[in-house]
Amino acid sequence: MHPKIFFMRVNRALVADDHVIVREGLKSIIREICPVMEVDEATDGDSVFDFVKKTSYDILVLDVNMPGTDAVSMITNILAYKEDSKILVFSMNEEHLYAKRFFKLGVLGYLDKESAAEEIKKALQNVLNAKLYMSENLKRFLLDDMIEIDKENPFQELTNRELQIVKYLLKGYSPAQIKETLNLHSSTVGTHKIRTFEKLKVKNVFELRELASLYQLDLSKI
Fold first, then answer.
1. SS3 track for 67-130
2. What is the pLDDT of residues 67-81, one digit of tens each?
3. CATH architecture label of 154-221
4. Superfamily assignment of 12-147 in CATH?
5. What does the pLDDT look like over 23-38, one tens digit per residue?
């Protein structure tokens, strides 16, 4: 009678970031937590999904700012393919702008790239154990946001005129061009822009563009 042979599944993590120094840093921290963890690396959304189709991972640590990568589609596709995937988003984007959207998609954690090593370890451990992770700052922000109003999409809070301002800012128009296009006074354009940025909690057009991409704002409908 032959003895039974048992195969132990290798613990594996996938780290996705287009900067090698970031991937090396994350790999080092992961191996501090779990020395036997095998770590695969990806540099864009396509390679992430290729890895996910071929391999079972204990955790996915994903940068959502990789070139040529639609972060929302990437995460949606991963969770549609393997709904129990444990995803930690590791991003340079400000938490209050993006985290809520990614949690709604189904990620377990959102981590600022400027976080200290101990905070990164805590986030990794939580997600590895299938627990939600968010920083204390993010918890406070989300609590304040819930108390204020439950906003599904921040662009829904804008007036038609404010949406028009957003549209032309995203198209690259200058304030002077927006003034001519919408037949407004210069001060009116400035006032609408300030009020719009305050409502969306963005500081500049770059953040506005990122937020519009995240919520898949369709300019053709404005």
1. CCCCHHHHHHHHHHHCCCCCEEEEECCCHHHHHHHHHHHCCCEEEECCCCHHHHHHHHHHHHCC
2. 888 888 999 999 999
3. Orthogonal Bundle (1.10)
4. Response regulator (3.40.50.2300)
5. 999 999 999 999 999 9
Phi, psi of 172 (to 5 degrees): 90, 15
The C-alpha atoms of residue 96 and residue 138 are separated, in whole angstroms, by 7
The residue written with tokens 């001060």 in the block is 187
Beta-bridged to residue 39, according to DSSP, are: 13
Answer whether 133's CB lies under 8 Å from 175's CB: no
- Total-model pTM: 0.67
Q: For residue 171, give every residue at least 6 positions away whose Cβ sits within 8 Å of its Cβ, in sequence order, or none.
A: 219
User: 109 with 133: CB under 8 angstroms?
Assistant: yes
Q: Where are the domains of the chain?
A: 12-147, 154-221
Cβ-contact 107, 89 below 8 angstroms: yes
The amino acid that residue 222 corresponds to is I
Inter-residue contact 23 to 15 (CB < 8 Å): yes
Sorting pLDDT into bands at 50, 70 and 90, what band is 62?
very high
